[in-house]
Amino acid sequence: MKLAIRIWVLLGLVFLALPLFVIIPLSFTAGQYLFYTPEMLALDPNAYSTRWYAAVLGDREWMLALKNSVFIGLSAAALSTVLGTLAALGLSRSGTPLKSFWAALILLPQIVPIVIIAGGLYSAFSDLKLIGTYTAVIIAHTVLAAPVAVITIRASLQRFDWRLVSASATLGAGPFYTFWNVTLPLIRPAILAGAIFAFATSLDEVVVIQFIGGYDQKTIPREMLIGLREHLSPAILAVATMLVGFAVLILILGEFLRRRAESYARKST
């Protein structure tokens, strides 16, 4: 029975990863179009090239999109991490009133369809005359990324020994000192993991930026969408392959931080 389950899981993973086995090799094509040439199928070395990676790294539009993605992603991740940590701390305390209501409210951006959120943000930012500004995009990405940070950090706090906070208060430490010297060192890996996943959420967003972003705020996903509409080329596959590599790195780092947070929680207990 266990062997059958493992086989089904393996087949499911292969099915999900199958598009990657098509996209990644094709991103190294030496041709101009998105199809496998007979030379590529014959594994001719001359049919493969890194020209499209060089084209992406040397293109002004792609570099502008990369700069915007990094700047907006880091800004949204920083805000999301701060807000997510505060929210997770509040939701993890036993004495918090209406805990279920606040948790549901915080997680709404992950439940409500993204088009509805984008339309609401567009309406709000239009009244504030913020459409086409970095401020609007960063706030919007923070709204989408903060729930991810809350989920990650709160999961770590579920195993946190709150008796340590009580002991610190008994010894005369104030709330800020206790948080900085007792709570924060124990949940720091979870906070870092939350920041990483918040950055990944911002990097992947493509719908909201269509509503509230201008030319100066276009990101990598938006530039990919423009490329699919206007000038389809293997450069898009090169960018997609780099994003896949980044996503794999995020998963590995996130898993490492998760295990480290669990180790810290066990030691504190």
UniProtKB/TrEMBL annotation:
Domain ABC transmembrane type-1 residues, every copy: 66-254
Superkingdom of this protein's organism: Bacteria
UniProt KW rRNA-binding keyword: no
UniProt-listed SUPFAM superfamilies: MetI-like
Protein name: ABC transporter permease
Keyword Cytoplasm among record annotations: no
Recorded coiled-coil stretches: none
UniProt family annotation: Belongs to the binding-protein-dependent transport system permease family.
Membrane topology: Multi-pass membrane protein
Segments crossing the lipid bilayer: 7-35, 70-89, 101-125, 131-153, 190-212, 232-257
Compartment(s) where it occurs, according to its Swiss-Prot or TrEMBL record: Cell inner membrane; Cell membrane
Main location: membrane
Keywords: Cell inner membrane, Cell membrane, Membrane, Transmembrane, Transmembrane helix, Transport
Cross-referenced Pfam families: BPD_transp_1
